[in-house]
Every structure is written in structure tokens, then in C-alpha cells.
Amino acid sequence: ELVQQVKSLVADSINQMHTVLPGKIVKLDTEKGLALVQPVGKFAKPDGTMIDFPQVSDVQIVFAQSANQQTAMAYPINEGDGCLLLFAEQALDCWRSGGEAEVKSDLKFDLTNCIAVPGLFVPANNLLKEACQKQAIIIEQNGKRIAVSGAGIAVKGDVTVEGSISRLRQQKYCR
User: Which of 6, 72, 133, 174 is 20 to 30 A from 151, comparing alpha carbons?
Assistant: First the structure.
């Protein structure tokens, strides 16, 4: 009986721990980089009833960028877009405010301590297959694209240059 109680206690604790969930962007604050996100899925209440996860507010949106934000990448996010929610081991409040990263909190892996990585969709888009086949980075938006691979840089669509072009090494691509 003691072993069963310990197993139940451990199972209950694990069931309250969140690690990663798919989510959908409900609302986006582009000024703050925060979103209201609806985790996709259900969880069991103590009586066994299954209910939807609650919406999570003030979820930090994550894009690739350097520490000083001098180099960054961003793309449009819309309400209804998919994302991957990652739940932090510690409360994120101090980190967000620029304070110490360590804080004593019982909110380990809590729904309120997550970040969102945008771009989680079903099914995958067709660019993945092409990028893998061509070993390329492909950026596409409404039929216009830039592809960078070992073969060179391919641009489809109108090109506007702001600033100067300092040197052209080869003229063979110019018309």
C-alpha cells in the first residue's frame, strides 16, 4: 500500500509538470514581443474530467538573434498561427525585468512560465523538402524568394537596394 501511495504521489506530481506543448497565438503585442497563447490539448482534473488548458498571457515570443540584438531575424506572426510552448524550469519574471535569473519559486515547469517559438504547423510547408534537397536557405513570401545555397544566391521578384553596392566581383550575372 505504501508503494502504491508513493507511485500515485509521483504520478500526480509529474502530471502537473509541463515541458513542451503545441499552441496557437490568440493575440500578439508586437511592441512588447508578448502573446496570449492557447495551448493545444486537454488535461485531467482530479476527478478525471478532461478540460482544455487555459490561455497563457504574457508569453515571450522567441526569434533567432544575437545577444546585443544587432543581428536578428523576424517574420510576421498572425493570430491563429501555431507555436511551440517551452516551459521554464524557473520563473521568468526576474529574467524579463533584467534582474537575476535565479529566483526561488514553486512555479517549476508551470503554464505561466513559458516562451513561444513561432512556426509550428501541420502539415509542414513545401519549402522544407526543397531546402533539404538543395541544401539551401530559402526565404519566400507571396511568390517572391531568395535562395542561398552552394550554387549561389537566387532571387525571384523585384529587387530594391537601399544603400550602395560597394563592389561587384564578377559581371557575368549582370545583363
Answer: 72
The set of residues, in sequence order, having a beta carbon less than 8 Å from that of 103 and lying 6+ positions away, is 90, 91, 93, 94
Pairing of strands 56-61, 50-52: unpaired
**Percentage of the residues of the chain whose pLDDT score is greater than 90:** 39
| Residues contacting residue 40 through CB under 8 Å, at least 6 positions apart | 21, 22, 23, 24, 53
Residues listed for the chain: 175
**pLDDT tens, position by position, 72-91:** 888 889 999 999 999 887 77
36: β partners: 27
Question: What is d(CA 23, CA 87) in angstroms, rounded to the nearest whole number?
Answer: 12
Taking the model in full, what pTM does it have? 0.71
Candidates 72, 151, 158, 83; CA nearest to 121 is 83
> What is the per-residue pLDDT across 29-58, written as a single tens digit (0 to 9) for each?
999 999 999 999 888 787 889 999 999 999
Closest C-alpha among 93, 91, 14, 24 to residue 53: 24
